[in-house]
Design a protein that fits this description.
The protein has 296 residues and is mostly beta strands. 8% of the residues lie in helices and 27% in strands. It has helices at residues 23-35, 39-49; strands at 54-55, 60-62, 74-77, 85-87, 95-97, 102-105, 108-110, 119-121, 127-129, 132-134, 141-143, 161-163, 166-168, 181-183, 191-194, 197-199, 206-207, 220-223, 226-228, 232-234, 240-242, 252-253, 264-266, 269-271, 278-279, 287-289, 292-294. A nine-stranded parallel β-sheet has the order 1-4-7-10-13-16-19-24-27. Mean pLDDT is 85; it is low at 1-22 and 36-40.
């Protein structure tokens, strides 16, 4: 029987292909950005990167001077049909954001340097959506202050949303600190993780640690999220290997050092983690609702 080669009348159009970019031009623009925090250079890097280039020339710093406004957000979003990947090649850190009113949508960040942050968020009213952080040399994504002079919880990064993101296979050289997501130590109020997945990280899926030296952080809300197989490495052939971390490896770690913080974990699932599915870590104020935790 002959095949019908007539295209269907209602066939969906093919997705547009990302344009090819001269990576040398991208590296030149990023080098200029590294030398001075110049908005023109910054825009050149971002405009090129969002077309789908594998980029590894420098850390991308977004300072307070580059903040948007409540009625005029700034957005870094993948071009239609593109899949931008920030490949840090084990040499650089990734995004360092102290600016506010930014939206990041559809970016993959991988291979940050050992003990270097893949995505460090220290601003306010920022949104990180549909992003992936994996195989980095420290934790995948963190909310904490970036400005050392911010000493009180009211100044620390606040009102940030992390939505539908994934973080996995992150591993630091000391085999101790690489969480999937963290909102800890110096984070402010109203930070929310929703619809996210954290798995196969060396340490915890989520870390909301507090310590006496810096005091209570703002309550973190984690909702509709999944944490699984933390403490185990995901290999290329889909097999698993124990990361070799003797501590941590929880699905959700929700506090520290007997400091009262009303973190709220709701509608989440935690399974197959090397240690606990959910660990209050001596936080007497931790609350949770509708949590499934099994086989940890």
């Amino acid at each position: 029987q002959e095949k019908n080669t007539t295209p269907a009348q209602n066939a969906a159009p093919a997705a547009p292909k990302p344009p090819k970019i001269d990576n040398a031009a991208l590296k030149k623009a990023a080098a200029a950005l590294r030398e001075e925090n110049n908005p023109q250079n910054f825009n050149a890097v971002i405009n090129l990167m969002m077309r789908g280039v594998f980029l590894a020339p420098a850390k991308i710093e977004i300072g307070e001077s580059l903040s948007g406004k409540a009625d005029g957000r700034k957005t870094i979003k993948a071009d239609e049909g593109a899949h931008p990947v920030l490949d840090l090649e084990g040499k650089y850190e990734g995004f360092s954001v102290s600016g506010s009113y930014w939206t990041f949508d559809g970016i993959e960040v991988k291979n940050a340097m050992g003990n270097g942050k893949a995505f460090y968020l220290g601003g306010h009213y920022d949104e990180v959506k549909n992003c992936t952080f994996h195989d980095n040399g420290e934790l995948g994504f963190q909310i904490s202050r970036l400005i050392a002079t911010e000493v009180s919880v009211s100044e620390w990064p606040s009102n940030n949303l992390v939505l539908n993101c994934e973080s996995y296979n992150n591993n630091d050289p000391s085999k101790n600190n690489a969480d999937g997501f963290a909102c800890k130590l110096t984070a402010g109020y109203n930070n929310v993780f929703s619809g996210c997945s954290s798995h196969h990280n060396l340490d915890d899926g989520w870390d909301c640690y507090t310590k006496l030296a810096t005091g209570a952080i703002g309550p973190v809300q984690v909702e509709n999220c999944v944490a699984y197989r933390n403490g185990y490495q995901l290999n290329d052939d889909a097999s698993e290997t124990d990361w070799g971390n003797g501590a941590g490896c929880n699905g959700f770690k929700m506090g520290g050092e007997n400091i009262h913080v009303a973190h709220y974990l709701k509608d989440c699932i935690s399974w197959g983690n090397k240690r606990s599915g959910v660990d209050s870590n001596y936080n007497p104020g931790f609350k949770m609702r509708n949590i499934i935790s099994y086989n940890n």
